[in-house]
Amino acid sequence: MKIGLTLPNRGVLFDVTTSDDMLRMAEIADQSGAFSSVWVGDSLLGKPRMESIALLAGVAARTSNVRVGPACMASFPLRDPVLLAYQWASLDLLANGRTVLVACTGIVPQAGGRIEGELYGLESRDRVGRLIEWITLIKRLWTEENVSFEGKHYACENITIEPRPAAAPRPPIWIANNARGDWELISRTLRRAVNHADGWETSLSEPDDVRRRIEYLKEYAAEKGKDWSGFETHLYHNINVNENKQAALDESKKFLDIYYTEDYDIDYVDSWVATGSPEQCIEHLRVYKEMGIDEVTLRVTGWDQFGQLERVIEEVLPHV
Q1: What is the pLDDT of residues 231-247, one digit of tens each?
Q2: What does the alpha-carbon distance between residue 20 and residue 26 come to, in Å, rounded to a whole number?
Q3: CATH classification of 2-319 is 3.20.20.30, yes or no?
Q4: DSSP label at 164?
């Protein structure tokens, strides 16, 4: 199982980090050999933070080995797809083909989500349709010339993106989703990932639930004749190393409550964050390794970002 590092780019708003600190953390992760990827969060007005593509350009320029991308791009259906394809092609050139574009519908229930919808004329019911259309169009723009497209939500004619991305034949696109509720809804979101993307990402953390979804993805991919070995599964997770597990949980809850303007149940925090001593964190992460997740990305849910990163690199990852 590969390990990624997620930079807390919303943390610039509440003294968790700075732009310089995040670029330095990306360098440390890249040079450590312990991480295979570096990720940033994304949102526009729903949950403001340093803008993801701009930050990823800085990360790409300061790293050489790790893959880079948004985990996940909640603003994906808000952005103009031709402009996004153009921006991403340039980002991929900066990264020498190391980018992964992770798309999601990005529904934000708080006031920021309503402001986004009003500003960009987007109804929540249209987000899935835009997601699929944007992915379809962006793939073509990265691999074809004189692209014409007519969809329900977007149309263009004779568009060529130059320069092209560095990755051949194109950068991978994943779909992130965390649907809850009845299984028909959940399975529909999983089929969407297999049908339209190169991978699936989730921030769900309850092991039995995640395991069931992976098993369904495998079954559906086989049914559709899709090569499972080329389809990646990715878990968006967190970590806080502290021999005092309760202190790690308390700090993680404080961090996540502020980060997402929520009031999380402590049991949910315990599921979504590897907390406690290095041994406890290792045991927590091994559960996902054993179920076959390809990669877990870890965000430090605390204010000592560099100290935590050092402990993760030296005391946790060698044993995962």
Answers
A1: 999 999 999 999 999 99
A2: 10
A3: yes
A4: P
Tens of pLDDT, residues 100-142: 999 999 876 665 677 888 888 888 889 999 999 999 999 999 9
Percent of the chain with pLDDT over 90: 92
Report the DSSP beta bridge partners of residue 201: 176, 234
The Cα–Cα gap between 179 and 238 comes to 19
Q: Per-domain residue ranges for the chain?
A: 2-319
| pTM, rounded to two decimals | 0.96
CA distance 209 to 198: 21
Q: Give residue 162's identity as a one-letter amino acid code.
A: E
Question: For residue 204, what are the contacts with CB-CB under 8 A and spacing of at least 6?
Answer: 178, 210, 213
Three-class DSSP category at 62 = helix
Q: Which helix (H) or strand (E) holds 60?
A: helix 52-62
Both structure tokens of 199: 């991978």
**71-93 burial: b if 16+ Cβ within 10 Å, else e:** bbbbbbbbbebbebbbbbbbbbb
The string of DSSP letters for 205-256 reads: --HHHHHHHHHHHHHHHHHHT--GGG-EEEEEEEEEE-SSHHHHHHHHHHHH
DSSP state for residue 273 in the 8-state scheme: E
Question: Which residues are 190's β-sheet partners?
Answer: none
User: Which residues make Cβ contacts (< 8 Å) with residue 235, sequence separation at least 6?
Assistant: 201, 202, 203, 205, 210, 288, 293, 295, 296, 297
Residue among 39, 42, 49 at smallest CA distance from 19: 49
